[in-house]
Amino acid sequence: MDGYFGSYALVAALLALGVAIVAGALLANRLLRPSRPTPEKLTTYECGVDPVGEGWAQSQVRYYVFTYLYVVFAVDAVFLFPWATVFDAPGYGMTTLVEMFVFLGFIALGIVYAWRKRVLSWT
User: Is the dihedral of CA 110, 119, 57, 52 positive or negative?
Assistant: First the structure.
């Protein structure tokens, strides 16, 4: 597999092999599993509570905001670890320090905005 397209062919072959293995496992699971549906098994089950009413429920937007803030802090933590390793390298000290303060400034600006809009209150 030499040449320019050789590495692409290898990646495509490995991708096809991975898809085939996953599809084969799912097919084997479907063929080998027992299937005995009963009315009790087909009933909606949620944490041991019997289902009452319809399956539709609205969620408040604040839950999504808290999830978004968690993702922002998780991304922040992911960027802090490589920064800490590069910060000590010779020649990168001041540059990486300024870049990290700019990044943390954007994060702080987002938190201040959420706090000013009273999004962070749980009540």
Answer: positive
Q: Provide the Cα torsion 17, 23, 24, 30; round to 10°.
A: 170
Whether the CB-CB separation of 86 and 117 falls below 8 Å is answered with: no
Stretches where the chain sits below pLDDT 70 are 1-2, 45-46, 48-51, 55, 87-88, 122-123
The residues near 87 (Cβ < 8 Å, ≥ 6 apart) are: 93, 96, 97, 100
CA angle (111, 117, 119) in 5-degree steps: 70
pTM over 0.85: no
